[in-house]
Amino acid sequence: MPPLRFVAKALSTEGVPPSELGMSMAPHPLMYQELAHDPEYQIYNGRLTPVRFADVSATEMYWKVRREVILRHTGELPIELVGPDAERLANRVFPRDVSKVRVGRCAYQFACYHDGGMINDGVMLRLAEDRFWMAQANGDLYGWYRAHAADLDVEVRDPDVWVSQVQGPRSLEVLAAVVDGEPPEPFRYFDIAEVSIAGQPVVITRSGFTNELGWEFYLTPDIDREAVGDRVLDVGRQFGMIITSAQVFRARRIEAGLLNAGSDFDRTVSPFEAGLGRFVDLNKP
Fold it and tell me: 211 with 245, same domain?
């Protein structure tokens, strides 16, 4: 058999009965912004994420994020830990000391099996003393949380939150123009803030997967997600913004030394072997 690649495509549902299998391919609420580019999708955390556009090359995306600004809708999956024992659960699952993460701050985290093999990584948001979102890379952490939470007073849930990224040298100019009122100040790397965009309350973080200046916004189910997305894209175009697929990150994250779960580490690799030993605290609670 010749080498093949497998992708998902967006097709009309007219005259086609729904399929139960479609439940494992959830579309981003702002996917409609991508459809004009004839995108190809792959599954990431049970969500559809674009891996290629027919009319925008990887080279064009690369230079946009290096020189101007891009918008990218991700397949990252935030899982919420909430309750009196949320911090205890997080400290059972992650090798970094979660108690050191202040409310209103993010932290890079990863989970390991009992033998040290790595499961997954992502960015953890501490929204309150007893509430966290872990925006994870592709993989299953939900079952791992539940297995470690049996004796704890904590809820593990999918809050139906979707993540998009604005990245590039002009990204903070876009932020200043897109929010209703003044942008957050200070807004340091890994800070969390709540702003108003198109009249909607939106959680944002100073984070991303490009090692460029950038921020991410989190779309909760109780807001008008399309109003937020349309505002970001419409304003962003004034700064040269284009919408991109996962191709924008491939070269850039390698240049920046950012690891990718599944290709740079997996269950056979320990944090020390992956060069992440500095994030392991063997003396934490």
Answer: yes
Please write the tens of the pLDDT for every residue from 58-78: 999 999 999 999 999 999 999
> Quick one: tokens of 96?
């970094």
CA gap 177, 106 in Å, rounded:
24
> Which of 126, 159, 192 is the last residue in one of the domains?
159
Domain assignment of residue 204, given as a range: 48-77+160-256
Beta partners for residue 52, in sequence order:
40
pLDDT at 253: 84
CA-to-CA dists, residue 256 to 16, 122, 199, 249, 251, angstroms: 44, 16, 35, 10, 9
Number of independent structural domains in the chain: 2
In tens, the pLDDT along 27-44 reads 999 999 999 999 999 999
Q: Enter the tokens of residue 139.
A: 């993989």
24 has pLDDT over 90: no
Tokens of 26: 């959830």
CB distance 93 to 78 below 8 Å: no
d(CA 59, CA 190): 28
Within 13 Å of residue 233, how many CA atoms lie on the same side as its CB? 18
Q: Are 243 and 33 in contact (CB under 8 A)?
A: yes
Residue 207 belongs to some domain of the structure: yes
DSSP 219-284: E-TTS-HHHHHHHHHHHHHTTT-EEE-THHHHHHHHHHT---BTTTB-TT--TTTTT-GGG--TT-
What average pLDDT does this structure show over 235-250?
93
Count of C-beta atoms within a 10 Å radius of residue 30 = 20
Together in a domain, 102 and 117 = yes
State how far the Cα of 179 lies from the Cα of 48, in Å rounded to an integer. 28
Question: Nearest-CA neighbor of 158 among 147, 166, 169, 146?
Answer: 146
What CATH number is associated with residue 122? 3.30.70.1400
